[in-house]
Write a structure and sequence with these properties.
The structure is a homotetramer of 377-residue chains. By secondary structure, chain A is an alpha/beta fold. In chain A, 36% of the residues lie in helices and 24% in strands. In chain A, the strands form 2 sheets. A 9-stranded mixed β-sheet of chain A has the order 14-13-12-11-7-10-9-8-15. A 6-stranded parallel β-sheet of chain A has the order 3-2-1-4-5-6, with helices on both faces. In chain A, β2 (33-39), α2 (44-53) and β3 form a beta-alpha-beta unit. The A-D interface holds A 3-5, 18, 21-22, 24-25, 28-31, 52-55, 166, 168, 258-261, 277-281, 296, 298-299, 311-322 and D 3-5, 18, 21-22, 24-25, 28-31, 52-55, 166, 168, 258-261, 277-281, 296, 298-299, 311-322. β14 (292-296) of chain B pairs antiparallel with β14 of chain D.
């Protein structure tokens, strides 16, 4: 595979948006890519200041100009990062896909299932690569968990408990000038859900990623605990998965004291598994009738997937940025494969995960509106 | 209050039944009572051997004879402990209540809601004290949690997550000669539920005890993961509580690797709380916008309720037996109050908790049978 | 073995002394013994009030009268519990041993090594049983650790880290009316050390108990951090053990925030072990090149020693009182063996542990006084 | 300050040396620098392959040529990273300092105290910046701990317990072809100590960094547990610090099961602190008489130092690479200050820390050789 440094661009993620800096560090962490161009804000001044702060080679005022401009350059960007609010995912991705540029897109895929399906057609028509940043599947021990289940060591999956608890929206920040809260609580920009779309989709993706089982139906109650909200800030739901497994999914943005509490437990006929995002380098393994094992990232006894996703020896914690970089690494390896005329592996979250995520959001909202009934995805 | 040592009797709990030894240690721990009589098994030989092992003064072949015999003695038992399978709770309690003897009864209250209501009438008619052994409310830090919520420090309760996960029934022990599994999986002896009745009721009681809010409705799915079972070995449900709080309750007896995983988290508008039964001397307190506090049993900064329930200084772990003994201690204090002509405080789980527990079991089963719909308690 | 309930007496442990209640609960927990007589305080009023609170059959004003009185009774006590300050251990034990009564004695064994050696002669001459309450060796997982090492699974022992940190003496309580602090900081009653004698001896016993290796020499620094103290409130020392193992022992009563932090780690050529008294039902096992194992009290995979020391299934925490009761249980089993004409097993801390404990205190003090040099035990 | 991207070079750290990749990621993480030149191995083929893998602009066969070559270029490197075995630190740093190039050097500073002092003179004479990579002081919560102590909230420091336990040298890897083990166990390349020099210096630096107190003397025992070793693989020592504080320092490379267990506890007259490198985003704070606080990286209640050292919100773990990057960030900020004609702050480990580290190694070795006596630094 070619070793040249790839060129990336970014739309959104300007000053004040945490996720912009996260994308930059993650994309560049292994030295394989550099962000060289951006349309980092709808506000031209912010766009220019953000680009200058990052020393970008090329700064654009709008994404359309950027797609056109980069496509025209001989050394234009190889891929674009879409780090905008949800409602812009489709138009931005469209512009770049149609310009022949690969896309890395924030989740959820779009503001509605219709948009998501339109996105799928665009991706298919373009022949370009598409990655969706379900970051948490980049953690080494999440990959170990997936491999553990796939190898049969868990036995038949029976029960899943997944939860994603935060508290940053326990006050009405969207009415206090917080931009991140504003768009997430605005149906015009976020779509039909805040909490389920923003973090519930991560939890749902994690369940399917680790278990290798698709979610079939949900029975949900969505709530807005903070007065005056049009969208949910909390949800609880029952799950039915392929193969007869049952489970619960809880997500909340008003869970006082929780920072970013993404946790998963799986129970099979031979073993149980448990992983916590706040202590991501440990996977708890619970074989039936035996003592718990504490699997640790970087250890020699782990499988290939976890080992490939680790940069330092056991005991040197890796975290969120490295997990994010793992998604980029797999995506960029695919990009080099395509460039070399090889087949893409698509071993990172992609368009189909995005579609399923949007179906999940829609099913959860529908279930809750109908009085908490089972709705199939 | 009188300081004489109280005399207790026990029905059930003979050799092979763990709970018998637990009751004895708990009842006698503080030196306030001694078990002196028993009808410890329906099998006369087991009954005699069990009584001999405990050096009981009086051994009976059946509970009816025991109730009659003890009532006739001048120094007969002050109270009886009912440690039988569920279907015997009512007839045994009836015999003793009608003989004027106070009752401590295992949970769930009975094998059906009808029986539970009959029990309530019997208790009311007898004027005797009645305690239900929801042991977990005896832990010091559970009492601290209750006091924390009651004092307003949690703010308005929004969300609850409670779970009780075990794995001891992940194999079909009821067909392998395990007596404890046999009756629990037999509708004739256990009633309409195994898992929800056996441990779900503990979880539900814990939620109401700590939050001070009654559970209004449940939306549940009960499952029998092990083939051939008539009763549930697993359940997941959504909860609605008084005052608008929402939540989830998960209980399982097939959660591979879990020993006795009773955990509760509460989220309010001012703080969160978290407690785990396997590490019972710690209560995690999460005030909004501040660092987590780690409240520890035996510490000087705790409230009265926790302090009264602790026997050793901070750092000397107390456990399940001491929690159980706390239920007995409160019950016996009431018994001495009555003897002294004072009013009973009834500050331990009692007949109303039992009734609500049975309503909860019935509602959960009904919800699941109807396809997971909301059912009021 | 005889099943009659044994009769115990207690000297010291009256109102205000936590350890009295602990002894009573522990001695009586399994229903095998009852405390029936006591000389619970040098102050006659306290002695009477304490005896009344416990409903003792016989209350004495002084231990000498008690030893004489009990020896003269046909149903006098089988054994006495010595729960006094250190300087009284020898005279009290002497009185009872010479009266033919077995002894359970608090640690450290005495106020000096000379006294300790006198005690050893008295015990030998009396032919009576003698137990020293190194409580922590009563924990199931400490016994599992001992069995793990003895079985060879640890390999050759290389390194030990043991520590016992508390903070209750970080203020000068001995000058603020705290009786427990007063005698511990008074050389006339405590001997040549406070911290090393009071808790360092526990740590040292734990090392030898688990490792099966004797401590050969120490290189210590003792400190009094709180101004005006005659005795140490803190110590750190290097250790050399039989077989070439090395280690550290830290004990402190001024370690701000620590409750009762007795922790031990052992490192061998095949595995490591780690145990914490505040979470006593877990033993961390670290086999070379493999994932850590989490051994849990009550689990089926544990050895006999741990299993015999457990009363409840895994997940039902047992704590300090149950560990203490295990020491009593083993002692009482020996007492019944002797009564039945069998040989005593002496599988609990005894007079030799006490002697070694006093040698340890003396060596640590001497090492520190000489400027931190190696001193053999 | 200038925003141009800085140019770095590296000596050592070629293929097979973990630390090379760590330096690259850390130096480039924030986009402020790029490694453009290297003499990455004494073996020319490895040097070329390593440089190619990193797409370096300039590859050198030896560090002397590199120093000369880079100094001659208009766009030569701004600073060099010295990632060689200890005995090369001095000659390599010398070459670059004399060529007017700033230096970032691995710890320990050199192979002997004499070399270290020579290094100090070179640094002083050159007027160049010098950073020593005591990575662990780059963690946000270590900086919070330092600020906590400095603010007086700990009170008077009394006791310190620090330890750094690993197990990677529990087998004789140095005789099994492991390059990293080979040079560390070779006195000609590592100097007079392996374990104390390699990781004990980190532990010692951490104590001084957090406490703000200098280490005055040590009383140490160094051991080689694995047969045939010329240098120590384990050490235990007692510490005396400025202001009367006492403590222990344990370091080991044969502590079976430990990955990279750097832990520190401090006890003051007002509070205690505890931090563990394997869970680096949490700092345990233990105020006297109150409940423990759990300070978390990224939280709004933290001080400036921690906040500046954090890239993501609370709950998104940052790890070892980010801590390392923080050292680089502070160093590069100084470099830009100098370039802008401002005074350097030198708020990162530097030459004086290196000198003190070497004194510590020498004192520990001397203490052990003399039979474990107090030796001043």
């Amino acid at each position: 595979m070619s070793m040249r440094q790839l060129r990336a661009g970014i739309v959104g993620g300007g000053r004040g948006a945490l996720i912009g800096a996260v994308h930059r560090i993650a994309a560049e962490l292994d030295g394989e890519a550099r962000i060289v161009a951006g349309a980092m804000s709808a506000d031209p001044e912010t766009a220019r200041a953000s680009a200058a702060a990052w020393q970008l080679d090329r700064c654009y005022d709008c994404y359309a100009a950027m797609a056109e401009g980069e496509a025209a350059l001989e050394d234009g960007i190889d891929f674009v990062i879409v780090a905008t609010p949800n409602h812009l995912h489709l138009p931005v991705a469209k512009a770049f896909l149609e310009a022949g540029i690969h896309v890395v897109c924030d989740k959820p895929l779009a503001a509605s299932l219709d948009e998501a399906q339109a996105m799928r057609e665009l991706v298919a028509a373009s022949g370009r690569l598409f990655a969706l940043t379900h970051t948490y599947s980049g953690y080494p021990m999440v990959r170990e968990a997936k491999e553990f289940v796939a190898s049969g060591r868990l036995g038949e999956l029976r029960k899943v408990q997944v939860e994603y608890n935060q508290d940053w929206l326990m006050a009405p920040l969207e009415r206090q000038g917080n931009k991140q809260a504003e768009w997430r609580m605005d149906p015009a920009r976020a779509g039909i859900s805040c909490c389920v779309g923003d973090i519930g989709t991560h939890a749902k993706h994690l369940v399917e990623f680790v278990s290798g089982r698709k979610l079939l139906s949900v029975c949900a109650e969505l709530t807005s605990f903070v007065a005056g909200r049009q969208l949910d800030d909390d949800a609880s739901m029952l799950l039915r998965l392929e193969g007869g497994a049952r489970g619960t999914l809880v997500c909340s943005q008003i869970a006082c004291g929780e920072e970013n509490g993404l946790n998963i437990r799986l129970y099979g006929s031979k073993a149980g598994l448990e992983w916590h995002q706040v202590a991501p380098n440990t996977l708890h393994v619970k074989p039936a009738g035996e003592s718990w094992r504490r699997f640790r990232a970087g250890s020699s006894y782990l499988g290939d997937a976890a080992t490939r996703a680790t940069r330092t020896p056991a005991g040197h914690s890796e975290g969120y940025l490295e997990a994010f970089a793992n998604i980029y690494r797999d995506f960029m390896a695919d990009l080099r494969r395509i460039e070399a005329g090889e087949a893409a592996l698509r071993d990172y979250p992609g368009i189909e995960d995005g579609i399923r995520g949007m179906r999940f959001v829609q099913a959860a909202v529908e279930s809750s509106r109908k009085g908490t009934v089972w709705v199939d995805l």
